[in-house]
């Protein structure tokens, strides 16, 4: 369904593959060469299959760099908003792959408890929702692409519709996207990944 006076589509995009630098906070990571290539593939699909009217991003470099490719391909400016940032966890040191997955799964399974980082999943979801509410009022007619992060997207979706946030988080690619209709999302209407 295309945007109408009452309904629009939000394309919620998890950023592309970063260069993992354990010695630096993840909020400072940039895209890898593979990540840039995958962003181009994602941008081609969005340009071909959606009516992208606006492109927004969190302010983290890996998200901004993913969004820049999408915005360039769509011929739209890129805007950023802190509300689309990842669940706050800069106080947590780099975790190995298994430890990281376990920590995120525990946080997503207990959204009202502070179990990982300095922000609950529920608080991150409310912040993300506030960003979408603003965009719905401000963005031009058409689909809105928002480049964000896996945990906050999964937590937000679980707060709005009947989905398992851990499964959503595990299923999002680097990059990957889900599509919801706004202002009353009832399901994920489409999902794609670009890291296969």
What do we call the CATH homologous superfamily?
A: Phosphoglycerate mutase-like
CATH C-level name? Alpha Beta
Structural class: alpha/beta
Remind me, CATH topology?
Rossmann fold
Q: Per the principal axes of the C-alpha atoms, what is the gross shape?
A: globular
- The count of domains is 1
Q: What value does the average pLDDT take?
A: 95
- Percent of sequence in beta strands: 15-25%
* Annotation field: number of helices: 6
Give unreliable regions as ranges.
1-5
Largest beta-sheet characterization: 6 strands, mixed
User: Which CATH architecture?
Assistant: 3-Layer(aba) Sandwich
Total number of β-strand segments?
6
Distance between the termini: 27 Å
Radius of gyration: 15 Å
Q: Which series of helices and strands comes N to C? A: EHEHEHHEHHEE
Can you list the strand order of the major beta sheet?
Answer: 3-2-4-1-5-6
**Percentage of helical residues?**
40-55%
Give an overview of the whole structure.
With 196 residues, this protein is of the alpha/beta class. The chain has one domain (8-86, 123-193): Phosphoglycerate mutase-like (Rossmann fold, 3-Layer(aba) Sandwich), CATH 3.40.50. It contains six helices and six strands; from the N terminus they run βαβαβααβααββ. It has helices at residues 33-49, 61-74, 97-109, 121-138, 150-160, 165-171, and strands at residues 8-14, 52-57, 78-80, 143-148, 176-182, 190-193. A six-stranded mixed β-sheet has the order 3-2-4-1-5-6, sandwiched between helices. α4 (121-138) crosses α5 (150-160) and α5 runs antiparallel to α6. The protein starts with 7 loop residues before the first strand and ends with a strand.
């Amino acid at each position: 369904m295309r945007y109408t006076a009452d309904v629009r589509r939000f394309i919620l995009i998890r950023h592309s593959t970063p260069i993992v630098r354990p010695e630096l906070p993840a909020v400072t990571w940039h895209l890898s060469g593979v990540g840039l290539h995958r962003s181009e593939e994602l941008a081609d699909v969005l340009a071909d299959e959606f009516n992208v009217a606006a492109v927004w991003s969190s302010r983290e470099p890996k998200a901004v760099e993913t969004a820049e490719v999408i915005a360039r391909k769509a011929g739209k400016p890129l805007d950023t908003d802190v509300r689309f940032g990842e669940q706050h966890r800069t106080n947590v040191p780099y975790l190995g792959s298994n430890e990281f997955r376990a920590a995120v799964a525990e946080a997503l399974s207990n959204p009202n408890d502070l179990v990982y980082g300095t922000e609950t999943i529920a608080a991150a979801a409310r912040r993300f929702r506030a960003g979408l509410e603003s965009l719905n009022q401000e963005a031009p007619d058409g689909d809105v692409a928002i480049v964000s992060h896996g945990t906050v997207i999964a937590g937000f979706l679980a707060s709005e519709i009947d989905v398992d946030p851990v499964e959503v988080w595990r299923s999002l690619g680097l990059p990957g996207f889900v599509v919801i209709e706004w202002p009353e999302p009832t399901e994920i209407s489409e999902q794609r990944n670009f890291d296969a």
